[in-house]
Structures are given as C-alpha cells and as structure tokens.
Amino acid sequence: MLPASRATIPPQQRGEPWFEDGNVIVLTEDAASDVTVAFKVHRGVLARHSEVFQSMFELPSPMAEDVEVAEGCQVVRMYDRPTELSALIRALYDGVSFQYESIQDFFHIAGILRLATKYFIAHLRRQAIRHLLETWPHTLDGHDRFIERALRSSPVGDLSYPYVHPVHVLNLARETHVSIIIPSAIYILSLYPLPDIIRGDHPKLNVEHPSRPSNQLSACDLQDYTLVYQHRIDLVMDFIRKYCCEREPAKGCVGQPGLCQKAFFRLGSRLSRSWVVRTGPLTYMVQVIDELAKDPNVCTMCRRTFKKDVLALREKIWAELPGIIGLPSWKELEEMDMS
Fold this sequence. Notes:
Elements: E1 24-30, E2 35-41, H1 43-47, H2 51-56, E3 69-70, E4 73-78, H3 82-94, H4 103-118, H5 122-133, H6 140-152, H7 166-176, H8 182-189, H9 194-199, H10 219-245, H11 259-274, H12 281-293, H13 300-324, H14 330-338
Parallel strand pairs: 1-4
Antiparallel strand pairs: 1-2, 3-4
C-alpha cells in the first residue's frame, strides 16, 4: 500500500538517501516487484540538475488540501526502479564513481544511464557513456586494450571479462539512444554463433538483476550482426589472400631472390588452413605480425613493410566499422553522444 495523504513513511519503506532535513519525498513503486520505496531529499538539489525534476517539484504549498503530504513534506510519485532511482539520487548528491569489475557494475551503470537519459541529466549521462567506452571502445587502441584485458582477466563469478553479454549492451544502447558503443558491441557479438544467441542460454544472459536490459536481439541488431559477421569473415579471407599468399617482396628486399615471397605464400597457405569462423580479424592480424617476426626466411625489410601495411589496414578496418551498419563516422558519433 502507498502511504495516504499526510501520512508517516514506515521505516521499512525509507530508502537511501533519506535526509531528515529534506523538504520533498520522492516515492516510487516498482510495478514488477510491487515494492514501494520513499526517498526524503532536497527539492533544490534535484531541481538544479534536471529541468524535468524542477517541473515535477513546481507544486502548490504543502498546506494545500489537494497535495499529498507525508512527514511534513510534499510527496512526488515516480515510477522508476527503486534501485536505479536510489543510485541516481546518490550520484546527484555525492558524485559518481564507476567501476567495471563485475557484471553488477554494468547494471549499476545501466541504471544511472537509463535515468540520466530519461530526466535529461547531461553530465551524468556523459559520465556513464564515457565509462562504457572504456570497455566498449570507439578507438582501435581501446579495442586492443579490451582484448588484452579479456585474455588476462580471471573469471568473476564464473563469468569471463567483459562479464556482460553484448546483447545486453546493445539493448541498453538502443534504449538510451547511445550510438557510439554500438559498432564495437556488434563486432564482439559477431564472434558469437547465431544459434547460441537465438537460444539465449548463455550464462551472462541469465544473470538476474532489476536493471538488466532485454535478452532478445532486435530485428535491427540481428541485421547488423549478420552484416558484421559476414564482413569479418571477408576481412580474414582477403587478408590471408592479398597480404600473405599474393604478397610481393618489399622494395629494397635484402633476402635471397624469391625466398621472402615463398615465405609469405607458405604463411598464407598455413593461415588459410587454420583460421576459424570465430576469428576476430583485428586481433588476428597482430598475431600474424608476431608470427612473421619469427620466420628467419623473411628479411628485415619485408617484415618491417608487412607490419606497416597491416597496421594501416587495421586502422582502415576500424575507421570503416560504423559504416558497415549504416552509422556515421566515429567522430560524428562522438559529437552526437558526448556533446
């Protein structure tokens, strides 16, 4: 039951924060769990961060007969998840410090991003997006750090880094209109087999939490997944053929005549037999550079030129990634979501 007009809020319904000197009570009821939680806060603190809050608090005097009052304060009813509203209010008072050490951290970020977007709290929205970009990056260097951390991080609660499933990331991005994290999330999702995604039985999808986004892949994201999945395979095959099998010696090659070219062909033949469907081309190319560096049959000049060409190819692939799914450039996405 919600408290009646001019009632007292039971202790078990008092959420955090609850300031005894507060002058407005924000009361929310989670329809899914039928839980009612109240927060006693300061009208001015919330209003200064959000025009939406400011409009909500423009109410008649608490002495008016038609105003709901509890604990001597006006009551403003909201319909957000109590855990998310609590996190948002605490962030407005104390600032926010995001982490990414477990899937619970992602859900915390998701809740704040969701309500910061809903209530037009620009600085909190930017902070949440900026933190998400540390894991779901918009730069190639960020992608490389993502892969490095995924390879060296120990599982947390039986979930491997990045702990959250890309489907959850995509659905959060769609819900909050954050486009800049979509390309990298789709790229990582393209490493998952489609039957696994459709079954929806991955452990990361089955973690229960009030702030968990939808488990279902939308028709739009299914299309983007398919485009990037095919694009990724084409990239691997083209790289093996053009950059390895068909590669000519570098200008200034100092190896024995024909030796470097034969080594490249052998490398390409070996790669064409060993690559798998789940190969990520950006990481794969770095691994091939390292593999070639150990081949004594390739001269220093050919190795150096190969590395330069492949690194330039990786930059090109990354720059073109948003366009594969019909999004504008990384720079434009950053201006859209971070300004």
